[in-house]
Input
Amino acid sequence: MKNLLIKEARLAVHPTTFIFLSLACLLLIPNYPYFVTYFYMCLGVFFICLTGRENHDIEYTALLPVRKRDLVRARILFVACLEILQIVVALPFVLLRTALIPLPNEVGLDANIVLLGLGFVFFALFNIVFFPLYYKDVKKVGKPFALATIVTTLFMVLVEIGVHAIPYMRDIWDTRDPLHFGDKIWVLVIGIVIFAVGTAGAEYRSTANFEKIDL
Output
């Protein structure tokens, strides 16, 4: 597994992925839909899989002395690491925005702990939809990405509507840190659990689908 992860990092990762990581700086923009920063990483995953298709990455990896399930597990684990890294990179910008821009985000959820916690949920939804569909037919990348984008966009829209329409979300979640820290930290904890369970479930379903494919 270690060697497969090294292979993912050296051969499979698309250069734009590192650019998308840096776009966490968008959290410093006043009045901006901050969930967009998470979407860019999903776009990076799409580019990784799309480039892999054109470069016959799946076929090359399948020729190595590894099990098909390990091939799937390595890709999903690598992507999960990128998604976690995206949230880690976002953390200092959340702190900077809190310190430098004392104004609320009029567009939607403010840059705070809740945004980080819901980021884990956002990525979990993407993984749950994208990978099982992708590993049904690795030649088709667009349809799984489109469906995953629809699901994550709906989630983003519901959250942004909620912070305007639901009193609890507006008065507790959509506030500057460290206000209501006790309530917010639970969103982060639950988000991490959902991400771990959801991504593990996506890996299980993806493995089952991929093992049915005759490469």
About this structure: The mean pLDDT is 91.
